[in-house]
Design goal:
single chain; alpha+beta; about 45% helix
């Protein structure tokens, strides 16, 4: 996976065509966020041929990027209009995804600063309202697994493995953002 270097030079691509880097056939992609220093944070790809609606794919990719530490509290998201143009999708699709993220407390939006990540894994414990809603959604996923014959031990093992992968991804991003003394980014020996 290549990392784009300038947000101003990135544009999305459709059906495998992209400016500056390859995109999987049938997907559209672009950079969505920058950190507080203006560095690129995450590249998101959507699949217009998937059954899952584009707004839900965008929502899920932002949640995933926050969970992995690719997007952190205070990181700016690309504006609705810019993102719609870059992906070549309707602005209402982006608004729907950003609204869902805002309703979940992951994103906050203001006219002055645009949309920014409002919380991440390091932001402290979630509020009770989130936990209640999340527990209800988790219950449906667990029920679906059980209805398909997934054993309790398998549910627990898969949940643990997924949580471990997110922990590892966050640790890697933390290490990349804070190299040990004497190993600073951009310095030459």
């Amino acid at each position: 996976m290549s990392v784009p270097t300038e947000i101003a030079t990135r544009t999305g691509g459709i059906s495998g065509v992209a400016v500056g880097e390859e995109v999987m056939v049938g997907c559209i992609g672009c950079t969505i966020g920058t950190d507080t220093d203006g560095r690129l944070r995450v590249r998101i790809e959507l699949d217009p041929t998937a059954e899952r609606p584009l707004y839900q794919q965008l929502h899920d990719r932002v949640i995933d990027a926050v969970a992995r530490g690719e997007l952190r509290e205070g990181d700016a998201l690309v504006s609705v209009r810019q993102l719609a143009v870059r992906f070549g999708i309707n602005a209402a699709t982006v608004v729907k995804a950003y609204d869902a993220l805002r309703n979940e407390g992951i994103v906050r939006t203001s006219r002055r600063s645009g949309s920014v990540i409002a919380r991440d894994a390091a932001s402290g414990p979630p509020d009770e309202r989130f936990l209640a809603d999340w527990s209800a959604r988790l219950s449906v996923l667990i029920a679906e697994g059980i209805a398909h014959g997934v054993e309790r031990s398998e549910l627990e093992a898969r949940t643990s493995a997924i949580a471990w992968l997110f922990d590892q991804a966050r640790e890697q991003h933390d290490a990349a953002d804070h190299p040990p003394a004497g190993d600073q980014k951009g310095t030459t020996p």
